From TrEMBL, chain A:
Record protein name field: Phosphate transport system permease protein
Subcellular location(s) of the protein: Cell membrane; Membrane
Domain ABC transmembrane type-1 residues, every copy: 91-303
InterPro entries membership: MetI-like (IPR000515), MetI-like_sf (IPR035906), Phosphate_PstC (IPR011864)
Protein family membership: Belongs to the binding-protein-dependent transport system permease family. CysTW subfamily.
Family matches, as Gene3D superfamilies: MetI-like (1.10.3720.10)
Transmembrane portions of the chain: 30-55, 87-113, 134-155, 167-190, 211-232, 281-303
Entry keyword annotation includes Nucleus: no
Protein species of origin: Bacillus badius
Cited Pfam families: BPD_transp_1
Taxonomic placement: Bacteria, Bacillati, Bacillota, Bacilli, Bacillales
Protein task: Part of the binding-protein-dependent transport system for phosphate; probably responsible for the translocation of the substrate across the membrane.
From TrEMBL, chain B:
Name of the molecule in the record: Phosphate transport ATP-binding protein PstB
Key words, A-Z: ATP-binding, Nucleotide-binding, Transport
Keyword Translocase set for record: no
GO molecular function: ATP binding
Pfam name, any one: ABC_tran
Superkingdom in the source lineage: Bacteria
Species for this entry: Bacillus badius
Origin organism lineage: Bacteria, Bacillati, Bacillota, Bacilli, Bacillales
InterPro entries: AAA+_ATPase, ABC_transporter-like_ATP-bd, ABC_transporter-like_CS, P-loop_NTPase, PstB-like
Residue ranges occupied by any ABC transporter domain in the UniProt entry: 19-266
ATP-binding recorded as keyword: yes
Length: 314, 271
């Protein structure tokens, strides 16, 4: 049964043409290959980074005993005579910044998320969300100078004993930097709680706040915890703000008013300095970087455990 | 199933009330607008305690709107406007000094789709008690058990009280939601098509439950299903286009409707 070419409709003719070309064009077969290559590149890169980290870290530990790294209480690699490589001061520096950032960002971030999801009108939400997104896009170096030239002077006017470089100012500003992330992800988690569940609570005579706090919030808890941990991982890894406003004095003291150094700002200090390739100091940044990596990895595992434990499904 | 079949099933339930039943809800000239859409038009209805009042009518005639107005859940819809008076036990529910939280504590609601909280079975029931400040553990335990028993679901869940309510079947979830309302010992239960999302067996269970509950509670139930209305209710209101066409004893509505539109609807000629 061979239809006359003339009688064929334009659509049929085009379909025939496509058929002749093998129906599925060559592109269709190439696409998965291209996509796979892209995926492979990112996986290989990640493996490469981790491997470099591990190899260089091993080199470091050939020169400095692991026990010293873990137990020495002083981080002073620049001494010609008795250099000391105890990670503790850098670790405490990072911890201080992260803690202050968390104390700033978690309450504010959650309050804003709850406000946007449960209380704000559609109009307010439409204005607030883009503003938060802009805030999330500000380069961290801008935050760094904001901390040093704006927040620090104000804090010093109120607390004169505060040093020029301290933990509070960069900690608070790192907190401000991660607020949009907590708001955005927590708001998503809250909005995905079905309204029917909210109505169930209100119909029992719950006030709006009782409903929010005892039903919507717990239902969204796993997403909220995930958002906090993700944001804190960023705080831990934050570099510019602490380098600019936190100083560069490794210190194991818990004092928040004095100059400090975090793991990241040490890495910056060494990378931007004129330390020779192959020196112990050079390798130390890999050891510090690896510690940082373990730190965030542990956070993520913890987050998964916690969020699984609190998961309330709907 | 036509009017003949319904007749045989409908008993004259309220022929000789032994005691004077008090009015729980008295709706006077109630109107409601969603923006410009006039959804309830001059509703006048009186509902008595310890009776089952069924609200029937075709889709979109305002059944859900009316029942949501009775506990002011309709307030959650933006741009809603109401006029007229609804008295609950003599108090106008729209008045400023009648807090919606108080009204909703006295008047429970069961929704069309079961909506348990994403919590354990136990916490679903305890929730109402907790938000109203009850902390006594023993009282909470007793009330949870009592409510689950009343909702005829205790035997099915007693060994898994601390598991998620989401593991229950749809029918069990709906009875859990009924139990959740009962925990607050409400005066009235509002039910908006509580069986429409359930299978026939679960539907029967919920219907039996309603029969038992009416000994203690006043029940107002929206239903799509006319057999259901005739089986379980004492009074029936027929809604059409936001108006009450006819309101009478269920027996009368299903056997001697006065309005031809009521008759058309219950015999399945439209809707
Ligand atoms: N939230 C709402 N906003 C606007 N119109 C609504 C809303 N809910 C219901 N309506 C309208 O009000 C009328 C009555 O709806 P509803 O009470 O849900 O009817 P029923 O429950 O009898 O099917 C319908 O015309 C519907 O479109
Ligand atoms: Mg409805």
């Amino acid at each position: 049964m061979k239809a006359n070419e003339e009688q064929k409709s334009p659509v049929q003719r085009l379909l025939d043409k496509k058929n002749k070309n093998g129906f599925l064009g060559k592109g269709e077969k190439a696409i998965p290959v291209i996509l796979f290559l892209m995926a492979a590149v990112s996986v290989v890169t990640t493996i490469g980074i981790v491997l470099t980290l591990i190899v260089e870290t091993f080199t470091f530990f050939k020169q400095v005993p692991l026990a010293e790294f873990l137990t020495a209480k002083v981080w002073y690699p620049f001494s010609k005579t008795d250099a000391s490589y105890g990670i503790l001061p850098l670790f405490i520096g990072t911890l201080k910044i992260t803690l202050i950032a968390a104390l700033t960002a978690v309450p504010i971030g959650l309050a804003v998320a709850i406000y946007l999801s449960e209380y704000a009108s559609e109009k307010v939400r439409k204005v607030m969300k883009p503003i938060l997104e802009v805030l999330a896009g500000v380069p961290t170096i801008v935050y760094g100078f904001f901390a040093l030239t704006f927040v620090t002077p104000i804090l010093r006017a109120v607390f004169p004993s505060l040093e020029m470089f301290n933990a509070i100012s960069p900690g608070v500003v790192v907190g401000m930097m991660i607020i949009p992330m907590i708001v955005s992800l927590s708001e998503d988690a809250l909005s995905s709680v079905p309204d029917s569940v909210r109505q169930g609570a209100l119909a029992l005579g719950a006030t709006k706040w009782e409903m929010t706090w005892r039903v919507a919030f717990p239902a969204a808890l796993s997403g909220i915890i995930a958002s906090i941990v993700l944001a804190l991982s960023r705080a831990i890894g934050e570099t510019m703000i602490v380098s600019i406003a936190g100083g560069s004095t490794p210190s194991a003291s818990l004092d928040l008013t004095t100059s400090l150094q975090t793991m990241t700002s040490y890495i910056v200090q060494v990378s931007t300095g004129d330390v020779g390739f192959g020196t112990t100091i050079y390798y130390s940044i890999y050891a510090v970087g690896f510690t940082l990596f373990l730190f965030t990895l542990a956070m993520n595992i913890l987050a998964q455990k916690i969020s699984r434990r609190f998961r309330e499904e709907y | 199933m036509g009017i003949v079949a319904l007749k045989t099933k409908t008993k004259k339930i309220n022929e000789q009330p032994l005691v004077e039943r008090q009015t729980v809800y008295s709706t006077k000239n109630c109107n409601l607008w969603y923006g410009n859409h006039h959804a309830l038009k001059n509703i006048n209805l009186d509902m008595k305690e310890r009776e089952v009042t069924a609200i029937i009518g075709p889709s979109g005639c305002g059944k859900s709107t009316y029942i949501k107005t009775l506990n002011r859940m309709v307030d959650l819809v933006p741009n809603v406007k109401t006029a007229g008076v609804i008295e609950y036990r003599g108090r106008n529910i729209f008045s400023k000094d009648f807090h919606v939280e108080e009204l909703r504590t006295r008047v429970g609601m069961v929704f069309q789709k079961p909506n348990p909280f994403p919590k354990s079975i136990f916490e679903n029931i305890a929730f109402g008690l907790r938000i109203h400040g009850i902390k006594n553990k023993q009282l909470i335990h007793e009330t949870v058990e009592k409510s689950l028993r009343q909702a005829a679901i205790w035997d099915e869940v007693k060994d898994r009280l601390h598991e998620s309510a989401y593991g229950l079947s749809g029918g069990q979830q709906q009875r859990l939601c009924i139990a959740r309302s009962l925990a607050l010992e409400p005066d009235v239960l509002l039910m908006d098509e509580p069986t429409s999302a359930l299978d026939p067996v679960s539907t029967l269970k919920v219907e039996e439950l309603i029969q038992e509950l009416k000994e203690k509670y006043s029940i107002i139930i929206v239903t799509h299903n006319m057999q259901q209305a005739s089986r379980i209710s004492d009074k029936t209101a027929f809604f059409l286009n936001g108006e009450v066409v006819e309101y009478d004893d269920t027996y009368t509505i299903f056997n001697h409707p006065k309005d031809h539109r009521t008759e058309d609807y219950i015999t399945g000629r439209f809707g």
